[in-house]
Amino acid sequence: MEHLVIGICVVIICCAGFYFAWRQFREERFKISLFLILFCGLIMRVYMASDHYIHDWDERYHALVAKNLTKHPLKPTLYDNTINSYDYKAWVGNNVWLHKPTVPLWFMSASIYAFGTSEIAVRIPSILLSLLAIFLTFLIGRTLFNNRIGLLAAFLHSINGIVLEVAGGKLASDHVETCFDVFIEVAILFCIISIVKKNNYYYSLISGIFIGLAIISKWFPAMVVFPVWLTGAIFSRKFTIKEIAIHLMVMASGCLMISLPWFIYFLHQFPQEARWEIYRSVVAYSESIEGWGAEWWYYINYVEIIFGEIVYILLIFAIYRLIKDRQEWALKLLTFWWIIPVIIFSFGVTKRHPYLLISAPAYFVLTAWYWCYLKETVVNKKYNWIKVAILFLLLALPIRVNIERMKPFNKSEMNPKWAQDIRALNKHIKERQVVIFNSERPIETMYYTNFTAYSGLPDSTIIQKFILNGYTPYVYKNGIVQRLQKEVRH
């Protein structure tokens, strides 16, 4: 019931906020409109992050590694000790954890250090970065076109259901994905500014720096920024071949300046784990990793799931304009921004739909551009009903996706009993150095407590190893944590 009440309040506040934002938009009070969009976007992101438990895939792993980074910032670990044997290739149970690069985890770690091991502490960086992304989308739309398109794109970004789920830690990759996507968006914004400003190489350097940050947030898909910039540079017809080459070298220099030290450090400090994760990120293109394989049309199908079914109309129109009009470099840049990842990822064997969020701002700006173009340019009284229907669906379908993903009218549990029970262990178990076996949620247990936890039942040899290292062993039996003959009930 608590979740339902809060969800209804969020819907009422956001409906009112977006209504007034629309009125300010029509009266060309763009700053007020943008503020209201950002305010509503913040409300929705906080709501999506308000669950009082760590989500399963992948938030719990990211949260635990981030917590451990507060103790040793340059050594990311999942299991902090190596008393029990482990496979360094098994990212769900190893010691040194390089399954994801560490930049997003450092953000989370700083938040945990400042606010403690609460759920919201894990999600604060993602909430703020996701809010920043709305503003970045506005800037991209305004820079390429005008304030109206920028604001409408920002609205679409603020309500997107998948973006909200990822920022709230509810989907795989969660906060890592949010951080990665924001770095990509910043990099492309500076790419756009570098084209507008032409030979100001400073902007290309900044773009390269954020490409480097994106690489050490979520590996090599960050390289998509280079062909996107190249597309805009070529079709803008502002640059000579020599100038294009210089810009690309400046971007590459900025990228290497940030990413290379990270690779050198981790390859030197943790060579086998670093080599394995780099290999794994490369081989994911040719092999199905962890059962995430799918048919080649997987991403084409998921575009409408993420952005609404009518998105295909505007994408086809964008491709048509790409071929017909050679002057609109802005549309070409946006079209290549979304189409390159779809093509490249479609040929890869491992597929996951959050990968498409790398191009989400392009979809939002293109949708806003097409909406304004259709409303202001296309005039045909005979078929005006088709125009009105398309204008309506371009906004209504993303709103429907928002409701489906936010689930504001559901009565789901925000603070489940299992999370309360794990947090209660801190009160019931008095020893400081503890290992708990047969736990149903060992990762969450290690996040909420300072205890070590494993899912399986141990043999006497393993128990003895922990005892010799100063640990007090506990075992879950029938939902009860037992230490020898003493039971601790929740």
Percent of residues in beta strands? under 5%
> End-to-end span in angstroms?
24 Å
- The total of beta strands comes to 5
- Strand line-up across the major sheet: 2-1-3-4-5
Number of helices: 20
Helix content: 55-70%
Largest sheet entry: 5 strands, mixed
Mean residue pLDDT: 89
Overall domain count? 2
Gross morphology? globular
Uncertain ranges: 486-490
CA radius of gyration: 25 Å
Helix vs. strand class: mainly alpha
- SSE topology string: HHHHHHHHHHHHHHHHHHEHEHEEE
What is the topological layout?
Layout: H1 2-26, H2 30-48, H3 59-69, H4 103-115, H5 119-144, H6 147-159, H7 161-167, H8 174-196, H9 201-218, H10 225-236, H11 241-269, H12 271-283, H13 298-307, H14 311-324, H15 329-347, H16 360-377, H17 384-406, H18 417-428, E1 434-437, H19 442-448, E2 452-453, H20 460-468, E3 472-477, E4 480-483, E5 486-488
Parallel strand pairs: 1-2, 1-3
Antiparallel strand pairs: 3-4, 4-5
Helix pairs in contact: 1-2, 2-5, 2-6, 3-4, 3-19, 4-5, 4-8, 5-6, 5-8, 5-16, 6-16, 7-8, 7-17, 8-9, 8-10, 9-11, 10-15, 11-12, 14-16, 15-16, 16-17
How would you describe this protein?
The chain has 490 residues and is mainly alpha-helical. The protein has 2 domains: 53-406, no CATH class; 417-488. The chain is 66% helix and 4% strand. The chain is built from 20 helices and 5 strands. It has helices at 2-26, 30-48, 59-69, 103-115, 119-144, 147-159, 161-167, 174-196, 201-218, 225-236, 241-269, 271-283, 298-307, 311-324, 329-347, 360-377, 384-406, 417-428, 442-448, 460-468; strands at 434-437, 452-453, 472-477, 480-483, 486-488. A 5-stranded mixed beta sheet has the order 2-1-3-4-5. Helix 19 (442-448) links the parallel strand 1 (434-437) and strand 2 (452-453). Helix 6 (147-159) crosses helix 16, helix 8 packs antiparallel against helix 9 (201-218) and helix 8 (174-196) runs parallel beside helix 10. The radius of gyration is 25 Å and the shape is globular. The chain starts with a helix and ends with a strand. Mean pLDDT is 89; it is low at 486-490.
